[in-house]
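User: Okay, second chain of the day. Same drill as before: sequence in, structure tokens out.
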Amino acid sequence: MSSVVVSTGGRLHFGFLNLSLAHERLYGGIGLALATPQTQLVCHRASRISIDGTPDSGAIREYAKRSCELLGVEGVSIQLKEQLPAHQGLGSGTQLALSVLQGVASVYSRSPSLRALAPELGRGGRSGIGVATFERGGFTIDAGHPTSRFTTSRPSDGEWTVPAITVHHQIPSSWRFVLVIPQAEPGRSGEAEEQSMRDVIEHADAEIANKIAGVVSRRLLPAIADSNLERFGSAITEIGRLNGTWYTNEQGGVYRPPAGEVISHLQDSAACFGTGQSSWGPTVYTITNSEHLQTTKEAAREAVQLSGTDATILTVSGRNAGARVDSR
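Assistant: Same drill. Structure tokens below.
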């Protein structure tokens, strides 16, 4: 194929299984794939690297350059059609990096293991959720990394493997996710994120991980296996809250402002079955179903108004397939 379109949705990251050095494995991401918003780009085979002018053309160029090196090909021309909101807790970086790698591979009829190459692009260093949802969508939990290898700092790019998937389930078609994206400072990334994570891990309470393990084994896994939205939402809310206690000093509370106030108001609505902050935020999610969707959207609008912040509200479905590649 000399020209392809690569499309992939965002993801929600509900938190980690463990951030304490006292346990054998570190991290262990919990999350699921979203159908929208999405990243979409068009790739053409080319003799050099060419990027259509976009706000993130520098990042795309770097991913394209590295992808061409890894695959041993000449070049690629890339046009970005849609992009996930950057640093809003929806996994934009990993989806963009893997979309570029997939696009380059596809136009040269290559079929590399994206999972194996993701570390070379700096992805999958902590959570494997972004890679897993790009590969196959759905609800996913990953195995994390050996604590003895990662300690407080992850290894250099390319010197780790993406965590294996330990749990994967389809997302019921009737489930809906209402996203509230406040107009706030972007979530942490780059060196700021690295430093924050080092600080969090250095002081993380091991007992919190023990509590999360109980919620996952006794509440979350049975709920997703039975497609029980109410129990799933309750478990995810508790996992998010427990994770937030690890980050209190880094983000100014269990949830970063203004996410905490929005979450507090959303939890007053019986139509919101689970609520929390995705990754570093500022995106807030609430989980509902098609029957209660209108009431949930009204609750989201009211929560935004009561919190005194401007925000974008999106209604999205889950995604049960990996990234889509179409020839042109």
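Residues 206-225 form the longest helix (20 residues).

User: Thanks, on to the next one.
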